[in-house]
Amino acid sequence: MSELTRIPAPDGVAPAAAYTHVVMGTGRFVAVSGQLALDEDGKLVGEGDPDAQARQVFENLRRCLAAAGAGFDDVVKLTFFVTDMAHMSAIRAARDAHIPADRLPAASAVQVAALVRPEFLMEIEAYAVLPE
User: Fold this and answer.
1) Helix axes 88-98, 50-67, angle to 10 degrees
2) Which of 15, 38, 53, 54 is the most exposed place for a label (fewest CB within 10 A)?
């Protein structure tokens, strides 16, 4: 695991409740493309179900990180693309199953008009830093 520094509340910035404002570290950079709620056969998991989709997306993120020799402890940034901000509670629950509250990465959430297919409710990308 890379040695990461988290700054949850920089001077003059309101503390964040569900993410860390600044995460920094040195090492090898890993970028994981936006993951969708697809199983290993490319089939949608959880049509119309944000909880099921969020769980599958985080499982896909876990697998992608593992392929790079990383884990959620190495993640410095998550970006959530959602078709409805109401899905953020499902995303937070799935995230919290993988990342402890004291190790939250930086994060951004963006509501979009659409994703690549209308049945997808969310797409999540991750950036991680591994030791040299």
Assistant:
1) 40
2) 15
- Start-to-end C-alpha separation, the chain: 10
Express the helix, strand and coil content of the chain in percent, nearest 5 each. 30, 30, 40
Q: Is the pLDDT of residue 1 over 60?
A: no
Q: Give dist(CA 63, CA 77) in Å, integer.
A: 17
Q: Write down the pTM of the prediction.
A: 0.93
CA distance linking residue 13 with residue 104, whole number of Å? 17
Q: Measure the CA–CA gap between 95 and 97, rounded to whole angstroms.
A: 5
